[in-house]
Every structure is written in structure tokens, then in C-alpha cells.
């Protein structure tokens, strides 16, 4: 595979992910990721509850402290959601993620 093409593709996915998360109220991004992943929390929503509702809709995310308990404690967080994208994903996958996220947030808020 062309490494530059893969990097450009993943950067485009990352930009779409960041834009979609920024467009939703109550979502706080953790850190400043520059690769195709993001960890975030949602105001008033427990990460495990959100992860469960996403899983039920066929969306796989990670939830919890992500082996960073001291950082989560310092941030005052019980955990976060992490979504990771790669070469095997595309814009359609992001659309499905955001649709499932919106559905889950409608239920949990």
C-alpha cells in the first residue's frame, strides 16, 4: 500500500470525525488527537451506558479508563468513549456511527 495515500485517507476520516463530534452539543473531546481516533465524554451521560447503546446498534467503541486511571482521576472523569478509525473504515461508517450516536444520546438525555 502507498503509505502517503493511507495517511491522507485516515486524515480525511479524522477530520470528518472531529467535525461530527464538534457539531453535537455536550460532547467534550479529550486531548487534541491528530490521528483517526478520538476519546470523548458526553455531559450527563455515563460512558458505559453510551457504549452499550452503540454496541446494540452495531457500533464498536471502547469505554472506560483506557489504562489511564491517574489521568481520568485528575480530570475528574470515571471514564470516556474512544472511537478508532482505520483504513478499513469509510465515510459511510462514520455516518452510521453518528446516526447511532444521535439515537443513543436521544435515549440517554
Description of the structure:
The protein has 109 residues and is an alpha+beta fold. A four-stranded antiparallel β-sheet has the order 1-2-4-3, covered by helices on one side. Strand 1 (27-30) and strand 2 form a beta hairpin. The protein is 50% helix and 17% strand. The model has no long low-confidence stretch (mean pLDDT 94). The chain has four helices and four strands, in the order αββαβαβα. The protein has helices spanning 3-22, 47-56, 69-75, 91-108, and strands spanning 27-30, 37-42, 62-64, 80-84.
Q: Please list the strands of the largest sheet in the order they lie side by side.
A: 1-2-4-3
* Rg over C-alpha atoms, rounded to the nearest angstrom: 14 Å
**Computed structural class:** alpha+beta
Main beta-sheet strand count, sense and barrel state: 4 strands, antiparallel
How much strand content do the residues show?
Answer: 15-25%
Give the helices and strands as they follow along the chain.
Answer: HEEHEHEH
- How many helices in DSSP terms? 4
Amino acid at each position: 500500500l502507498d503509505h502517503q495515500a493511507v495517511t491522507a485517507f485516515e486524515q480525511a476520516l479524522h477530520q470528518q470525525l472531529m467535525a461530527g463530534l464538534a457539531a453535537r452539543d455536550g460532547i467534550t473531546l479529550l486531548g487534541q488527537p491528530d490521528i483517526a481516533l478520538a476519546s470523548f465524554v458526553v455531559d450527563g451521560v455515563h460512558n458505559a451506558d453510551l457504549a452499550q447503546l452503540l454496541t446494540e446498534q452495531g457500533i464498536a467503541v471502547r469505554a472506560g479508563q483506557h489504562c489511564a486511571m491517574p489521568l481520568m482521576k485528575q480530570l475528574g472523569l470515571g471514564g470516556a468513549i474512544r472511537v478508532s478509525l482505520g483504513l478499513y473504515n469509510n465515510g459511510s461508517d462514520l455516518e452510521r456511527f453518528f446516526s447511532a450516536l444521535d439515537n443513543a444520546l436521544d435515549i440517554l438525555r
